[in-house]
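User: Show me an example of a complex going from sequences to structure tokens.

Assistant: Sure. Here are the input components:
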Amino acid sequence: MRPVISPGWTRPARPEMSGEATYLRHHLRGLDNWNPTATSAGEHLQQVRRMDLNECPYPPSPKVQAAIEGVFARLNRYADGSCPELAARLSATTGVRVPNILFGPGSTQLLKCIIEISAGPGDNVVSPSLLWHRFHGIYEALEADATLVANRPDGSIDVAQLTRAIGNRTRMLVVITPNNPTGMMLSEDELRHVILQTPDNVLLFVDEAYHEFAMHAGGPDALRMLQRERSGPWIVSRTFSKAYALAGLRLGYAMCSSPEIANAVRLMSSTFVVSAFAEAAALAALDDPDYSTFIVEDTARERSRIIEGLRALGCEPMNSVTNFVSADVGRPGIDVVAAMRERGIRIARWAYPEYGNYIRVSMGAPEDTDAFLDALAEILGTS
Amino acid sequence: MRPVISPGWTRPARPEMSGEATYLRHHLRGLDNWNPTATSAGEHLQQVRRMDLNECPYPPSPKVQAAIEGVFARLNRYADGSCPELAARLSATTGVRVPNILFGPGSTQLLKCIIEISAGPGDNVVSPSLLWHRFHGIYEALEADATLVANRPDGSIDVAQLTRAIGNRTRMLVVITPNNPTGMMLSEDELRHVILQTPDNVLLFVDEAYHEFAMHAGGPDALRMLQRERSGPWIVSRTFSKAYALAGLRLGYAMCSSPEIANAVRLMSSTFVVSAFAEAAALAALDDPDYSTFIVEDTARERSRIIEGLRALGCEPMNSVTNFVSADVGRPGIDVVAAMRERGIRIARWAYPEYGNYIRVSMGAPEDTDAFLDALAEILGTS
């Protein structure tokens, strides 16, 4: 029996289509552009508290700066996209073999390449319905037959329903821990359920963009569990964008259970896709563990402040372990986002209609937390 | 009547497949890894003349260095992937509207995204058979039904046969000018033929990675011709990797005849795919036209020297207008590549079996030209 499935997400209506663009695949006609990084007229980075994109509020480690300056003289050369030094370093710390590790310009770019190795048009992927909406864009782009399993009422991933939704035609199961936009992670038991209940003929893809925050919060190590407990195939994706303050660098990576899987992703991606800065900067960031510890600890402190502040204002924040917090603010999120933006603070709302009262705020520096909570009190009329 | 079609390219044999990786799409099982940027043990960039990847031998303009240094402080932030200043600048010089211009981490990454908007599994794409072999990888990755039209005996693209190969099911026609690995460009008449003979229900994709070199060599401006003479849809792709010495930066762009086409490519690509360095460095490079003129002129001078030197050694160089030259060296290219590599010089051979005697050498500094020609004379036994 199939579980209750909720699409959970609906694509905005498209503009009237000409019906003539037959050179475009049917599902790609009449698309809008979506640019979350766009700044409106007069809005400049330095004047705005950018708390909408789950970025780190601090620049990277000073060691990264030195590494970047050393790259200039060879910027005319293609970088080795296999990032051999970095791959060896990650291999040493994770136990994943070098040929099974690959890199892309952010894990975002890899997400589509990864899903595409299993899912062509009509191929079945099982996924939570509530997750970063780029996943919905990827399912749409690939014309995948995505079975979207409703999350639990508290927003967490319903792992029992998820694995129950696996059918004969399922090629891949997607989980995200911690998940976006909820900020919640899977427990060790939940992860074990997914690892053991996903059959060996289904590729288990675990996206861990917020891995380092989850570790700091005492979460289970998904990779170690996959290595020890899963007999079937798996992929884990991670990024340097968050805990290493390198969102602008564009470097993410995937670790796979076999070189065959890694090579399939490599063909879907591109050989010359990683910049010359990427490996040098990532190695320098790894050379400064105190700095990433500072980022993770600072994030945890501001997260507690934001969660407490939201509660004090009568909102219902979710139990985030990441560098962002989502909350039910009791009124349309779209209005709160607009009111915040008038005050020079960028936050996000949820793209899911049934969560219309939810906002998502990224952790900033302590003064950003103050500004956000003050503004929210004002907006909610409780100040 | 269909023209004579030659696949021209055959995938290397794959290792024995397990036959069990059903979670991978069938055509992606048992793939090898291919890494042209890999350096072998003991081989370091500074000790090797790297003349195999069509890179510029000089670092970028000093203005780029200053721009890059200014980026560090905001490297924790996602860059605006729409590169608004750069798009406005390119729009002003080309007349292509800003919403029709999009960016990726190198035009290489965009190639697959572009072809994917027209070609799903089984969809027909018409293409020259002789072109950069990443195209073959893309056709394979997408399971496209690629009609590969044989190039003329001299290696040039046979535009008459190409447009004749367009059928009722054709979604896209691919041309590359200048082409790689031949280095040859289409004439104005040939371009006009393609532009006018590709029906309006077929997307015409012109890849121009070596555009600036072709302009310097007096070639036709494909974009201007498309804008003035084509009534149907088109895409032009270009890059900052070659004439701006920014291969390691990873920035390419596509200009489209409509925002609908651009948005389809954007969905196939990724919002957060361009680094924070990319736009700043590209703007700085455009601010130093003397430097890119120096690169293009220096390249032309060394190209003439290489072509003359090859002829003097009894080889048959092709009529390249780019930063590389291919030539029939009268013996297996694979042997010449190996002998060059023993001498610390990296060059490439052609991946096409029927061109087994061809090598491809990228333009270097004058001393690289000297070293290459001396080594070749030695290898061919004519010194």
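The lines above are the inputs; the final block is the predicted structure for all two components together. The first helix of chain B runs from residue 62 to 69.
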